[in-house]
Amino acid sequence: MKKAVLLLLVLLIVLAPCAALASGSYVCFIALNDSLLELSSQAYNQGGQYYVPAGVFADFRIYFDYRDSTSIARLYSSSRTMYFNLVTGETYDSGNNFYTSSAILRGGTVYVPVDFVCRQFGLAWSYIRGSGYGDVCRITNGAASLSDSQFLSAAQPLMAGRYNEYIGSVVEPSVTDGGFSGAESVVFLSFEGVPSETALAILDSYGLKAAFFLTNDEISQNPETVRRIVGEGHNIGIMCKTTGPETEFRAAAAALEGCAHTATVLVSSPRDYRTACEAFAGEAGLVYCPASLDGVRNGLGMTAAALRQALGASHAPLVYLRLLCCATTDANLNAMLSTLSAGSVVLAQCETSTAS
Q1: What CA–CA distance (Å, rounded) separates 208 from 187?
Q2: Whose CA is closest to 118, among 26, 190, 30, 191?
Q3: Residue 303 CB neighbours (<10 A)
Q4: In what order do the strands lie in the sheet with 49-53?
Q5: Can you give the chain as a three-state secondary structure string?
Q6: Pairing label, strands 354-355, 262-263
Q7: Helical axes 197-206 vs 327-343, angle rounded to 10°
Q8: Residues with Cβ < 8 Å from 302, sequence gap 6 or more?
Q9: How many Cβ atoms sit within 10 Å of the Cβ of residue 305?
Q10: Residue 168 half-sphere exposure, CB side, CA atoms within 13 Å?
Q11: What residues have CB less than 8 Å from 246, skipping those under 6 apart?
Q12: Is the dihedral of CA 320, 325, 329, 335 positive or negative?
């Protein structure tokens, strides 16, 4: 079956006519495993979140309904149900656990945050930067035959035809401020440690959210700051720094619940403890959050110049950036966020923190 899918896509490359590169109009396709959807369903970015129409998940047996009378949309599978209140912005599951991510109504269609939904229903997603005919938000359930690069190469002729048809049928293509098209990278922003008032104020001035990974002691000793982090819409995860992550996580989770009435499924660790912590996360149904770009640097922190150099050297389309809450970060954070905002879409790492 996999060979058949690959052969079909290769034939599309051979048989499809070549088209001129697009003139910069922005569209973002949605792909499910190895299938490219029509441009009547597109993904787009709003406020640092990437959204897709709620109905696209039906191919994964995740079904959708929406009642105008209550303004409540529902995504459900055989094992999980999520509710989205389009008026209040509240999101909750069948266990009445509330989440920080919200659905939105756009042109009469309900859109949901793809990162949040994928994590809740056991799917994966990736952002694939195109080369002239739009970008791709690809959602997978493990049954995809092609890697992202193989998929983009194979789907390019089909994308070109649909793109040219789309821009010929509309006055203005769908363009959104802060869209991923043309961005150097998508940066998932997180911090290790307790932030200062300065750091939180700077994040607020840029309208950006982040994930803060805290230890049990940090949560217990800084309850007011923890409540402010939650109240301003950031995520909180647990930082495990021992070879016993289960004990450490449960103590920190209890402290978080006690001071902020908040639960989390996010967990991380220093590199030396990653194997043990990642294994625990998998067994406990938690989300392990690694950092592909280390701004902690053994407790020294990172300067804006070092960040620019690291981003310039990586050329990665997805960057998981971890910064240290310290004086060095406070002094450089304005410049670092300016650098990120100039060339990247900045998201909070893992939109899966919950409020109970």
Answers
A1: 11
A2: 30
A3: 17
A4: 44-46, 49-53, 109-113, 104-106
A5: CHHHHHHHHHHHHHHCCCCCCCCCCCCEEEEECCEECCCCCCCEEECCEEEEEHHHHHHHCCEEEEECCCCEEEEECCCCEEEEECCCCCEEECCCCEECCCCEEECCEEEEEHHHHHHHHCCEEEEECCCCCCEEEEEECCCCCCCHHHHHHHHHHHHHHHHHHHHCCCCCCCCCCCCCCCCCEEEEEEEECCCCHHHHHHHHHHCCCCEEEECHHHHHHCHHHHHHHHHCCCEEEEECCCCCHHHHHHHHHHHHHHHHCEECCEEECCHHHHHHHHHHHHHHCCEECCCCEEECCCCCCCCHHHHHHHHHHHCCCEEEEEEECCHHHHHHHHHHHHHHHHHEEEEECCCCCEEC
A6: antiparallel
A7: 10
A8: 295, 296, 310, 323, 324, 328, 329, 332, 336
A9: 12
A10: 6
A11: 280, 284
A12: positive
Neighbours of 170 (CB within 10 A): 11
In the chain, what are the domains? 2-9+21-167 (3.30.457.10), 185-355 (3.20.20.370)
User: Which tokens is 284 given?
Assistant: 């406990």
Quick one: tokens of 288? 């392990």
- For each of the chain's 356 residues, which pLDDT tens digit applies? 433 333 333 323 222 322 222 333 478 999 999 889 998 899 988 766 789 999 999 999 999 999 989 999 999 999 999 999 999 999 999 999 999 889 999 888 999 999 999 999 999 999 888 877 889 999 999 888 888 888 888 888 788 888 888 876 543 333 333 343 444 567 889 999 999 999 999 999 988 889 999 999 999 999 999 999 988 888 899 999 988 999 999 999 999 999 998 888 889 999 899 999 989 988 887 778 888 899 999 999 999 999 999 887 876 667 889 999 999 999 999 999 998 887 676 766 554 333 33
